[in-house]
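Note to self: keep these together.
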Amino acid sequence: MNQPLLNTLPPDEVDVGMQRAEEAEVDEMWSFVGKKNAPRWLWHAIDPHTGKVLAYGLGRHTDEAFLQLQALLEPLGITRYHTDYWGAYIRHLDPEEHHPGKHNTQQIEREHLPLRMRIKRLTRKTNCCSRWSCP
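Structure:
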């Protein structure tokens, strides 16, 4: 049986009022289900101007999972992607549309901590640092 790499809601089951977006910040967040050797990734894209989630999915850390997320974003007409330097982004986004760099993804990276705090499955054992690892 051939299962999709990303688990998403079918578009006909979601009533969000399709909006256009010129830019998207795209990132993935790692977690695990049951044991650490079974990692899962939350893939999501947000509008950097409004902070609204444009698309998301759960899957593995593969090029195919990113391509499925990109297909979900295609109807929005995005012309500029802000990402980190992960290889799938570099391989599958046009250089004219792709703007990698940590300062371009600050808003979406900032969303990871509240997600981990609110969703119990994503929490870590601690949310602190030792006095030696903090500035």
